[in-house]
Amino acid sequence: VSARTVGIEAVHAFAGVAQISVAEMFRGRGLDQQRLGNLDMHCRSVQMPWEDPVTNAVNAARPMLDALDGRDRIESLIVSTESGLDYSKSLASMAHGYLGLSRRCRLLEVKQACYGATGAVQMAAGLLRSAAPGTRALVIATDVNPMDAGALYAEPTTGHGAVAVLLSDRPDVLAVDDGAYGLCGFDVRDTSRPRPDLDLYNADLSLLTYLECLSESYRDYQRRVPSSDFLASFDHLVLHTPFAGMVRAAHRRLMRELAPGPPDAVAADFRRRVEPSLAYARQVGNLCSGSLYLALASLVHSRPSEELADARVGLYSYGSGCSAEFFSGRIGAAARDRTGDVERWLAARTSLTFEEYERQLPRSREVLVPKRDREVDLAGCDRMLAPFADRGPMLVLESVADYDRKYSWRTPG
Amino acid sequence: VTAAERTEVRRMVVETVRSILPGAPADLDDSASFRDLGADSIDRVEIMTEVRDRLAAERPLSAFAELTTVGAVVDYLVGELA
Predict the structure, then answer these.
(1) How big is chain B by its Cα radius of gyration, in Å?
(2) Per-residue pLDDT tens for A148-176?
(3) pLDDT at A177 over 90
């Protein structure tokens, strides 16, 4: 009996309504301009005070669901986040109502830093393989990054937003290869968030652990898929992208280990197989566990669908702490049509000066900290939502009353 | 581990550092920290992965994260040879 083919039917990213250029951040923070090159980024999304993990999740998924025939077939909603808002009540339950999903639905929040969404995708794929034909599952990776000047060079790389990933037995975007995965996980304290507004980040430990897990999870993949060959089996590689420069280093590292060659050949392989996945990350920053799926969207938009249909992709997800997975799949013929117009919405973001960024930063951070009652500063909200009018209504955080977060729909324009 | 072996490991570490940080002096002191030499996190990752590969070291890559100076990396690698 062969298992049913399941995978990703659609992907929709939302990376906020504001951005700041990374060069501008370096200027404002007085960071060493020479380090810009190794980050390999243009700009990053910025959280505004009326945005939180719930609004990001809903604003990412809603346009995708509005275009979908049969959202009532979604039987699982799994929200992956490292920006949880409650110890008990899941973000999935907070998003469920705003997304108009069926009550016949599992609701779950998962957390494993930047790996969470991939764990959720694999769980959803497993559920779908045993479910009735036509059943769907929705995974939403949603995060905000509360970094400030204390994060030094990590602050300009941090992103903001969410990626909605719809799974079913109609994998228009990516058919997940059944049984083809490799794992690596252990206890390491490279990143943590002991408070809602405090990220602790050991850059050297995190980057080295990312590389260690990449080698180890790929070797585990190879053990399970003995016929696989790092150079020949994967037309493209999509890797978790804390910043584009890290992915370049990771590719170099893996090539040295698995397929050593002259620097020119390694660079050419990077340009051909990896670089197409980095275009959006260079404009968004690290989207945490959504970053892998933003990278997948970037790849499928990099060239005409007919060139990519059926291409095999190797995907690597790494979440600090740590859990990592290398898995694979084949691109679907409708991948481009089912991954939204990311570029358009990235271009719609309002560009902030460093001074504007500095002014709003404490106000955006404070809405992540539990407080009994709170009014949210909505200054600039309507102006910044206006370029998103064609997306339809957008969810906005307005206040907190007796710990209950109050959201409202705003129709921009 | 003989003095000659340590010298050889040290030569390899200094060579690697200078290939990634061309501005680093040839007479690098053991106490020279990678940060002070101008290495960013990607440079440091490159240094650690390359010295580990060149010595075919067994210890996990993540263990190299706490090594911040030339001397610390040399001692660590020499310790593995012992």
Answers:
(1) 12
(2) 999 999 999 999 999 999 999 999 999 99
(3) yes
**Chain B residues with beta carbon closer than 8 angstroms to that of A211:** 45, 49, 61
DSSP character string of A333-357: TTTTTTS--HHHHHHTSEEPPHHHH
Per DSSP, what are the bridge partners of residue A162? A14, A142
Which pairs count as long-range contacts for A215-219, CB under 8 Å and 24+ apart, including other chains?
A215/A253, A215/A254, A215/A257, A215/B61, A216/A182, A216/A184, A216/A324, A217/A182, A217/A183, A217/A184, A217/A316, A217/A324, A217/A325, A217/A326, A218/A182, A218/A254, A218/A258, A218/A316, A218/A326, A219/A182
List the single residue in B40, B65, B66 with the smallest CB-CB distance to A153. Answer: B40
Residues 6+ apart with CB under 8 A from A159: A15, A44, A45, A143, A145, A281, A284, A285, A286, A287, A288, A291
Query: Range with the lowest mean pLDDT among A157-161, A207-211, A243-247, B77-81?
Result: B77-81
Q: Which residue has the tokens 């969470």?
A: A116
- Write the CB contacts of A227 (distance below 8 Å, at least 6 apart in sequence): A233
Residues of B in contact with A153 (CB under 8 A): 40-41
Residues forming a β-bridge with A329: A176, A313
Nearest-CA distance A46 → chain B (Å):
23
Contact A203 B62 (CB under 8 A): no
CA dihedral A211, A214, A215, A217 (to 10 degrees): 150
Mutate to test the interface with B, among A204, A213, A214 (most CBs of B within 10 A): A204
Interchain contact, A211 vs B61, CB within 8 Å? yes
CB proximity A35 to B under 8 Å? yes
Interface predicted TM-score (ipTM): 0.93
The beta-strand segments (E) located in A51-155 are 74-80, 106-110, 136-143
Alpha-carbon gap: A241 to the closest alpha carbon of chain B (Å): 14
Pairing, β A74-80 against β A236-239: unpaired
Q: How many CB pairs under 8 A join A and B?
A: 52
- A273-295: pLDDT as tens digits: 999 999 999 999 999 999 999 99
Report, as residue numbers or ranges, the catalytic residues of A: 82, 114, 240
pTM for this entry: 0.96
- Spell out where A171-257 has E strands: 174-185, 191-195, 198-201, 236-239
- What pLDDT sits at residue A333? 93
Chain A stretch 125-164, residues whose beta carbon is closer than 8 A to a beta carbon of chain B = 153
Residue A73's CB is within 10 A of a number of other CB atoms, namely 18
Mutate to test the interface with B, among A41, A208, A254 (most CBs of B within 10 A): A208
pLDDT for A145:
87
